[in-house]
Amino acid sequence: MPEYPRLSFTLPDGSEVHTDVHTLLNAGYAGRSQDDVAAHVAELAELGVPAPSTTPALYPVAPYLASQTDEVPVQHGRTSGEAEWALVITGPSPEDVLLTAACDHTDRALEVHGVAWSKNAGPDVLARKAWRLVDVEDRLDDLVLRAWAGDVEIQHGKLAELLTPAYWLDVLRSKGWYEPGVVLISGTIPMHHGVDQFTSSWRVELSDPATGNVIELGYRVRPLPEPIG
């Protein structure tokens, strides 16, 4: 049997849930307003990023890229994260679907050659805490995503800006992918203009204004040594 990465999450009641990730999916162009998505695709095209054949998009990536780490090694200076939420399926019932914070660390130099390639060139970093989706689904749109590149806020928005977890769960069911060990990363919200995304650290926060509860993750970006040859 293959060995898959094991993720562990602490729930609000203090219990821990573990899952071995065999399928990792990255949503893209996943804004709830597809008019805004179309405008974003046009902006990216001006930067040389190829347009997707359809939106929203869904990119399968290598499952070993699912990680809970404090450090991300990179090969060059043009990589950066993205504030996202993640669905983690740990069992067959609705109570087994977890919601957590995630950061999709992407190779921006490779992105101009293919978004799917760039997604496979860096890890999806997940938080170590999670909520059961059923416990927050009545107020999902009010949950807040924030990200900091270094010490500067680079993203701030509500989950209402993105396609819902229910939308993506329906996609998983339609594809036969709804099963334990599947992780889906949501796609991201817009970045603030003028903020340098190529920094030495990233931090993402998912917060619930109704309760004050917060899930967060953070990691350092470590440049690898120069190659020989």
From TrEMBL:
This is DUF2848 domain-containing protein. It comes from Amycolatopsis albispora. The lineage of its organism: Bacteria, Bacillati, Actinomycetota, Actinomycetes, Pseudonocardiales. InterPro entries: DUF2848 (IPR021269).
